[in-house]
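Task: sequence design from structure.
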């Protein structure tokens, strides 16, 4: 019996020590960071193509999105087309009713001709110094029709008449 005890005891001790059942004070799993809230929608004042229009001619190369914002805002602009060029024009805005905005911003997008019958999205991501994030998206479908312009009337105006309008 003593021989069995001497042989079995070290084996049991070894198995118990290596079983990994103890909570040996290891580090706890880190708490996952809270997910960032979804960006607020940008209130688009005007756009080309218009937000209510779902079609645009595939020859179209110029697009824009106009909205009010804060002077300290930064923007990321995207339009999923080739050779994208962007320009942002900022204008000071005095709106006594809304203290949250002080600029009117016109984002201009230019790219190569669109592919016919394809989906596109004009996207503006805005970040403000107070941590607010906003996003404006205008989605449209290009069609294979040709763009046309109808001239309703030709009228020639004297330069002096035009100057009178601005004095």
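Answer:
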């Amino acid at each position: 019996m003593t021989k069995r005890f001497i042989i079995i005891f070290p084996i049991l001790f070894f198995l118990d020590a290596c079983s990994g059942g103890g909570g040996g004070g290891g580090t706890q799993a880190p708490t996952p960071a809270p997910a960032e809230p979804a960006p607020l929608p940008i209130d688009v004042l005007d756009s080309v193509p218009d937000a209510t229009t779902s079609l645009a001619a595939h020859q179209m190369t110029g697009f824009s999105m106009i909205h009010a914002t804060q002077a300290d805002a930064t923007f990321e602009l995207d339009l999923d087309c080739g050779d994208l060029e962007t320009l942002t024009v900022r204008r000071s805005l005095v709106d006594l009713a809304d203290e949250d905005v002080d600029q009117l911003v016109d984002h201009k997008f230019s790219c190569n001709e669109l592919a016919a019958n394809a989906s596109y999205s004009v996207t503006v991501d805005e970040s403000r110094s107070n941590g607010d994030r906003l996003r404006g998206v205008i989605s449209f479908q290009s069609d294979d029709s040709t763009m046309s312009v109808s001239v309703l009337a030709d009228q020639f105006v004297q330069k002096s008449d035009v100057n009178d309008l601005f004095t």
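The radius of gyration is 32 Å.
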